[in-house]
Amino acid sequence: MMNTLTLDIADGAPQVRAAKIRLSGMADDRAMLRAAADLTRDLQTPRPLIYWGDFLASAAIGYAALAGAILLPVGWAIASAVLAVLALYRASLFIHEITHMKHSELPGFRVGWNLLLGMPLMLPSFMYEGIHTIHHTRTRYGTVEDPEYLPLALMKPWSLPLFLLVSVLMPVGLLLRFGVLGPLSLLSPKLRRIVVGKYSGLQINPKFERKAPEGEFARQWRWQEIGASIVAVSLIGTTFAGVLPLRALLIFMAVISGVAVLNQVRTLVAHLWENEGEPLTVTAQYLDSVNVPGGFLPYVWAPVGLRYHALHHLLPSLPYHSLGEAHRRLEAALGQGSTYSGAHYPSLRGLVGRLAASTMKQRAQ
């Protein structure tokens, strides 16, 4: 698969539209990999105060704003809903950190996150744990066995709006998963296999089917699923009983939908999505991924370190608060024109435009 490189000047900044690389068969850039490992050895330890402070502040602001969206007059309610989406989005993205962290280094964080956010929003961490690590597996990234990869750049134009539409409907799916299918699956082994395999992961690859959990992870899964199901059944039951106003439920679901859509937009530009299913080297995976290191807006739409998504693929265990410093060190050591700089892009708009343009080329094929 051969791609081309062009530069376009937009808003006074060079914008990379494509990169002339061949992902398949690309050799690893040993100098970059060695520098990434050597220059970040002192950045590997997560800082509990940053994790807890960031998460708790984001969750508190998000829940307060959600209450405002439900209780305040229309104008203030809309502003509160927007704030709730942004804050709860940031808080929810700590699920990504939970997937990668050594839990002994942040004791209680997974439990606290699930109790305060994962179960109340029906997004328990088991939906991502055991899924996302496969995406980082050397031989599975970008293949049909990768739960988080689709060659979106090589698909038809209608695939992008459909990709976003799925996220709009996410809260309905979560209510059905945890409020209906989950409890019913306890009565039917066949249904349980389907629920576990197809409806228990935040995955985008429809061909992926996850395996049943084992050992300690199975115990984690069990209590998290029970908690999320209690929330879902309570929401459904109290709404039908007239205890919870339908308006309140719809606003709650709209905020979750907003969080899901924002995350789906970020997912659209997390990679170039140009791999055709072959295993790739770490360097090729890096160049198929995206850093958006400049400007303020990436802090909003790609928070908790995800503006450095390509760097994260080089150093998946690096805490999110260390990625900015790691990026500065690698930039200084490797310089412009290096393989490392080949994954940097200036804006969300340019990346979405590149992806849309690529799908348009598939229309006639």
Automatic annotation (TrEMBL):
TM region positions: 49-70, 76-96, 108-128, 158-184, 226-244
Residues in Fatty acid desaturase domain copies: 76-337
InterPro entries found in the cross-reference section: FA_desaturase_dom
Keywords of the record: Membrane, Transmembrane, Transmembrane helix
Biological processes per GO annotation: lipid metabolic process
Keyword Cell inner membrane: no
Designated name of the protein: Fatty acid desaturase
Lineage of origin: Bacteria, Pseudomonadati, Pseudomonadota, Alphaproteobacteria, Sphingomonadales
